[in-house]
Amino acid sequence: MKIFILTFIICLNVIGLNAQRLTNSSRSTIGYIENGRVMGSNRSTLGYIDGERITNSSRSTIGYFANGRVMNSSRSTIGYLDNGRVTNSSRSTIGYWETGRIMNSSRSTLGYYEGVNDEQASLFFFFFFYGSVTSQIPTITTSTMSNLGTTTATSGGNVSADGGATVTARGVVWSTNPTPVISLSTKTSNGTGTGTFSSSLTSLSPNTTYFVRAYATNSAGTAYGNEVSFKTSSNNTNNNNTVTSSNLTSSTSIIIKKTWSQQPNGYTYPMNIFVPTGAVPQGGFPVCILLHGNGGNGSGMVNQFLSTLSCHILVAPSGYQNSWNICAENSDAPDVEMIQDLVNNLQGYTNVNPNKIRILGSSNGAGLANRVFIENTNPGIDIICAIVSHLNEPQYHSGNFYKPGNTTDPSGSFCGYNVLATPLKSRKYLSISNDNDNLIPYLGGTSVVGVSFLAAETAALTIAKYKGHTNNILATGVNMGDPSITEFSYLSGDVVHLKGNAMHGTNATQRSYIKKYFSDCQAYTSVPSILPAGVFEISPNPASDYVDILSMGAMSENLTLQLIGLNGQQLLTKNIKGIIAGESIRLPLNHIHSGLYFLQIKTEKGVWVRKLEIMR
After folding, report:
1. Is the dihedral of CA 278, 300, 297, 324 positive or negative?
2. Which of 347, 437, 439, 535 is in Cβ range 3.0-4.6 Å of 354 for a Cys bridge?
3. Residue 578: which domain range?
4. Roughly how many angstroms between the first and final C-alpha of the chain, as a whole number?
């Protein structure tokens, strides 16, 4: 009853009510309003007013009222006020009012109001009697795991909103099976109310994978936080999911092995790691997990983004058959599980910022990045960047996000993406697509990769609306840079779409935008130097059957020449032991398809990179 009274009183005040008495049908006082403070009949504080926002005593939003439209806390319309008639969202009549009296749909008196106008009274009816805004379950997140041992671990959670009713129980629950619930005996009890709490998990089994969720209970029910998995140590050795107390280095071995129908004996994902040198920033280095395109690999992705994200730790796995599990691709591997294990592992290193884990994928890897956005619930992943592959229809259809129920099946409806998903709303999202992409249709529809896509700008709007954007799609964006791109920014940059003209790749302006969006770089790092532009010259460019690399000066150190695709794949590598001034090196290209590529030369003194176009 308390929350109903609160919402009734608050709504009356939305339109400027001061110190008015509110009564029920027996004319007994049920509350007051005074100087923006909402009180019960005993004048205890029940809530506050914040513009159009209706809050409870914890200042958690429970509803809105604007321009005759009544909304819940998600700003979904739940009814209208229409000339003495109160309607639901379908505009069916649910009540009436006349001066001083409020009635239900049968015109039976429900209550009275003194000094309150008719519209205020209708809001009283809507919230108090119709009950459209009532107590909701709390909002809670699960903490990352720490202090992992053979039989113990530490977790916890954060109750950020009580849902309009007091949280009477909170803690964590765990199981060896996913989605544990509080009916299990394996749970903790960590007090009441909102805020953070810590939980100790005991009596665990060694070398065992567990699933953990924080929970919080109020009168509306029990809410669960994001699911976190971890693996306890064995009695003798550490495993790859054990939280460490050491620094991650470029030579650290991260071993994640998965088994599925294609690989019953297991597949261990190769990992390429780059860790910047120099002092570790406060809170640890941000990390970017790089996901290659179809046919690419992790090493190529690190090379491609080394200068763009030079202040990030870069971790780049290679997928099974150099592919990621997206509908019709070659791999059916549990790649989303692998990413979950990888993030959990990275969050345990002392030089890693556990709250700044970013996912950047290109092409097929962008499809996996979008799956991570939709399916992964680790709040430490704060940015998702999808390059040249926006949302496809299996991932979003019928007005909802979906994940695969089991193995993806290209012949099935929406490739088997048939389980509703609720992505975290806390993450930033950057989408990069090109209007001349010959693989992924910018305007949406069927593609040559075997799946249909949303239009690129519509896909970005879909994510923005899910995260709270209430207006229409941006008709025009902001042009910037040379080469020119168009920025479509929603929610103050929380969701951004970049439209370019770089075919199935990125141009310099898009890469610079990524660097800015990821807040890279600060002065605490050092990266390989960029060699001067005039050290080498290449011709012809565009090339056809070959390209010549001319050295403008002598170099005694070893050189590595690489031709890299836009998806990060290393297509050609050549090692050279020194070079003299004026010497020319010819690379044959007759086996390389037409398109845009990067030609990279690495020496002990630095890196030289140029874009090479192959035309036939």
Report:
1. positive
2. 347
3. 533-614
4. 76
